[in-house]
Write a structure and sequence with these properties.
Blueprint (H helix, E strand, L loop, with lengths): L1 H108 L3 H11 L2 H4 L1 H7 L4 H11 L1
Helix pairs in contact: 1-5
Length: 153
């Protein structure tokens, strides 16, 4: 009987050990489920953050592209204006050279200085009325204006 009572005393112990192991197993499974749930939540939050970053970067890229387009248009206008100004400067330089040449010629023909030149200018209107001289005095920068119109289109 002792053996049977010994056997019967071991059975409840093994049953309680199994219950304890089942309880630990259930607890571990529950803990693993919670851990997996937290991991999925972290993963979803990270994915949402990356999506937000993508959207912000798309907005930033669109704004940068817009700024580049505006700056490029401004550059084209500045280059066109610069081209017109260079053409006008060239024309004005040429006109100044012609006027200096005329001034030198007038100074060489009349040695009486500036007063003599003014006297000759006032008394001889042929200089102003001459077709060739009017080309230098009243010349407008037509070529520069035409260049500006061409560059705008």
């Amino acid at each position: 009987m002792a053996s049977s009572s010994g056997n019967s005393s071991q059975i409840p112990n093994s049953g309680s050990e199994e219950d304890l192991m089942d309880q630990r197993k259930r607890k571990r499974m529950q803990s693993n489920r919670e851990s997996a749930r937290r991991s999925r939540m972290r993963k979803q939050k990270h994915l949402d953050d990356l999506t937000d970053q993508i959207n912000q970067m798309k907005k930033d890229n669109a704004q940068i592209l817009s700024t580049i387009n505006v700056t490029t248009q401004q550059l084209v206008h500045v280059e066109a204006d610069n081209s017109v100004l260079r053409a006008q400067m060239s024309e004005l330089t040429q006109r100044l050279d012609y006027l200096n040449e005329i001034n030198n010629l007038m100074g060489n023909t009349n040695n009486s200085g500036v007063t003599g030149m003014m006297y000759e200018y006032e008394n001889h209107h042929d200089f102003i009325n001459s077709h060739w001289n009017m080309m230098y005095i009243n010349q407008q920068p037509i070529m520069a204006a035409a260049a500006a119109e061409m560059l705008q289109y």
